[in-house]
Amino acid sequence: MIAHEDQPALVLHALGETPRIERVSISPPGRGEVLVRIMASGVCHTDIGYVQYARTTPVVLGHEGAGVVAALGEGVSHVAIGDHVAINWQAKCGVCRNCVSGRRQFCEGVLGTSEPRVHLDGKPLAVMLNAGTFCPYAVVPASGAVPIRKDMPFAVAALLGCAVATGVGAAMFSAKVQAGDDVVIIGCGGVGLNTLQGARLANARVIVAVDRDPEKLALAARLGATHVVDSAKEPVFDAVMQATDGRGADHVFELVGRTDLMVEGLGLLARGGRLTLVGAAGRQDEMTFKPRGFMSKQQTICGCIYGDVQPERDLPLLADWYADGRLELDALHTDTIELKDLPAMFEPGYRPHGIRTVVSLEGLA
């Protein structure tokens, strides 16, 4: 196998800088690895935030992607060249204490490639979350390429690996919303709207969607919210208490990453309720609350990464749910751009429009 030379990629060179398009080379996959021709990649809030908190630089950004298997490393048999795949950025190690105990969602040794596969001017580059999907090619661990149905558009399939998995999984697999539960969703972006859909699929009784954007709230109602609350115009607490007959919510999901909203969410819980933190706060942010009432009401606060999904099982399942109409994803893909236009989204002061922007890479490479 030969390397793919002179490929465009979005590279962050230093924290706080605007990433830029560079020409990189991609090495062939090693043993237990897969080369994926990336066709589409969603732009996630995590990608934007990575500019401020990436653990290492320089790094190729992007992690929410879908494409076609282009080459196989030795020992890979679960996919074939030409298969359509969604990128799983949490390839489980299978050998840590949590993995062998049946708690793979808490894997302590998430896999990357055995050595760097992307180079710039002959020097190795890191890839974001073991993926680096803002590039026409990505080399991932074998289980990082999850086969999906071929009739799903790449622009929608790209969302499976983060927005859809994290959101639907937060409700169904992490919080385990039960039929008849009352649920509050704080933040109706791509992940929040999928959390809402997960609550709907779990047959929640009440689903209150909270946001400040009327268009997002209108879409939330279309996707299954029983109540919508414009937090810029009405008190959220009063609206939630009215919707839940005064008892509060069994589940509150915070999807913005703001500590004030986390504290507000805690105040919306019923006795025995659970606050699930999905939005990524800053690494130095602190959340302050009064523990006595929290303890007396026997409540829970839990963090959620990747929706506690089992990617090999759940990404194809979510694709099937899209195909049979149980999941509405087309409405979440609100804009398509080319890779060359992507750096503008990282400029200070840029405000994204719609729900999810997808970068099309089909015409590259």
From TrEMBL:
The keyword Metal-binding applies. The keyword Ion transport does not apply. InterPro entries: ADH-like_C (IPR013149), ADH-like_N (IPR013154), ADH_Zn_CS (IPR002328), ER (IPR020843), GroES-like_sf (IPR011032), NAD(P)-bd_dom_sf (IPR036291). One of its GO terms (biological process) is formaldehyde catabolic process. Its EC number is 1.1.1.1, 1.1.1.284. Its cofactor is Zn(2+). Keywords: Metal-binding, NAD, Oxidoreductase, Zinc. GO terms for cellular component: cytosol. GO terms for molecular function: alcohol dehydrogenase (NAD+) activity; S-(hydroxymethyl)glutathione dehydrogenase [NAD(P)+] activity; zinc ion binding. Residues 16-359 form the Enoyl reductase (ER) domain. Belongs to the zinc-containing alcohol dehydrogenase family. This is S-(Hydroxymethyl)glutathione dehydrogenase/alcohol dehydrogenase. It comes from Kaistia hirudinis.
